[in-house]
Amino acid sequence: MSAENIREVVKQKYGEAALRVQGAGSACCGSSRASVAGCDPITSNLYSTEQGGEVPQQAMQASLGCGNPTALAQLNPGETVLDLGSGGGIDVLLSARRVGPAGKAYGLDMTDEMLALARANQKQAGIDNVEFLKGEIENIPLPDDSVDVIISNCVINLSSDKDRVLREAFRVLKPGGRFAVSDVVVTAEIPDAIRRRVELWIGCIAGALRDSEYRAKLAAAGFEDIELEPTRIYQVEDARQFLAGQGIDVDAIASQVDGKFMSAFVRAKKPERAACCA
What we know:
alpha/beta; 21% strand; single chain; disordered C terminus; Rossmann fold; eight-stranded mixed beta sheet; 36% helix
């Protein structure tokens, strides 16, 4: 799969998901991922009832993530937050409420349909300190040292150039800025049968990084204080659900998938600049 093919298929599928949310009103497992990669345990039950009440219903339905970075990331009043691959806007809107009127939350997405849905959700929520930007996470349209916190929810795995994504994240973070994302991570080699399925790449599975590889890429980009915290570990029966319809014999690769996939919260920090004349 070429990088361009992956990007175009992701854009098409997530655009279709946005349109389905706007037209359907509900989705399997409480998430419109049913229209993207099948009803699976990765996207279900990620947000509390209280959080659901803070955003429009369609923002919740359009959530295609694997975690809840806004619940785990430290966000302070007055800070600037950037969500990479913001989709229908749920994490942006929740972040905007946490940083308050003195802060700002940006959402970055490459899909016109998702951006339209996110802006409609913002209008319905009546939140002003939000801006949705069109662009790719490999080329963030913000200046250097402009963001306090970067969040993302199962989107970095969709990129075929994760090193560039992490370098861009490092660039736009202020010194001392925090990287706080949810992603699917693996602790063993992924079987070729999974790697070859573009639908599983879209579903955040085929593009998943090894835990050690994620750490190494973050360090290479310049980050420090790197931590990976498992939030969900998937067993064979979970794998049976997110591999459904892909023609993969799960029993044949059970030992390679049982407990080897996990949703994780990935933390890191951009170093502070050295003091002048130190």
